[in-house]
Amino acid sequence: MSRKTAVITGASRGIGLAAAKRLIDAGWQVYGLSRTEGPDERVQWIPCDVSNPESVNEALDSACMQAGRLDLLVCNAGMGISGAVEFTSEEDAARQIEVNLLGAVRCAGRAAGALRKQGFGKIIFVSSLAAVFPLPFQSLYSASKAGLNVFSDALGIELEPFGVQTCTVMLNDVRTDFTDSRKKSVRGDDIYGGRIRASVEKMERSEREGMAPERVAEEIFRLAEKKKLPAHRIVGVSSKLLGFLGRILPTDLTLRIIRGIYG
Fold it and tell me: Lesser CB count within 10 Å: N end or C end of the chain?
């Protein structure tokens, strides 16, 4: 039997690279889709820009053709912006949704045909607790991840009759260079009483003290090996507590708590 095969987007660094390494260590064959190659030569690197439909189609088709099978697609590529909505440019807003949501939609959509035809496979979307705990001054990031959760749920229903499962992995704070790569704007901070800068700085301090990407990679590996995927999986003990509170607390109370922390 041929080795299990995974395709991971945004695999050149951070969570994507850690997941690729964990799967390879377990005997999987991994194709890494990213704009630049990562440092691990064991990964089969394929250039891909998830914001470009042609690039996505070519990369997914190439991986599937080379491997002959696709057991797992991990939609991990993402980016972040921050700032007040009223001062966010149309270009930045579009880029946030383009990469985080539409990029995943493109990859999953292209892989869906191959998975359906072979009659098995999993798609895991790397999401965030920001999908259920909306972050002020990161509104568009939160919206992109909320959209990803709903998309995964709906896609899972579509593909279930063909033996294909979907899942979102919702993360809290993770120590990666995502923090330093965030495109930040403090335009209007004087109008907002310094809240823009204070909110994002507090979030970034939490990220720098967060869990290692290898912790997320381990969870992705466990899900890849599971027979049945959950719809959503929250990673981390504190994150699970937050997720539980988010399910039982009234929305108004949840928003009041978020306002007190980040507002």
Answer: N
CB 235 within 8 A of CB 121: no
Determine if the pTM surpasses 0.85: yes
- Options 34, 82, 127, 128, the catalytic residue: 127
* Annotated catalytic residue 262: no
- Are 164 and 158 in contact by the 8 Å Cβ rule? The answer is no
Catalytic, 145? Answer yes
Token output for 108: 């999953």
Candidate list 4, 34, 145, 239, residue with the active-site label: 145
Domains of the chain, residue spans: 5-262
Catalytic position from the list 31, 122, 141, 199? 141
Query: Which one from 4, 12, 21, 139 is the annotated catalytic residue?
Result: 12
Q: What is the pLDDT of residue 242?
A: 66
| Strands of 72-163, DSSP E | 72-75, 81-82, 121-128
pLDDT reading at 247 higher than 90: no
Length, in residues, of the chain: 263
Choose among 190, 198, 104: nearest CA to 151: 104
Q: What is the pLDDT of residues 11-53, one digit of tens each?
A: 999 999 999 999 999 999 999 999 999 999 999 999 999 999 9
CATH node for 5-262: 3.40.50.720
Q: Is 12 a catalytic residue?
A: yes
Model pLDDT for residues 149-162, shown as the tens digit of each residue: 999 999 999 999 99
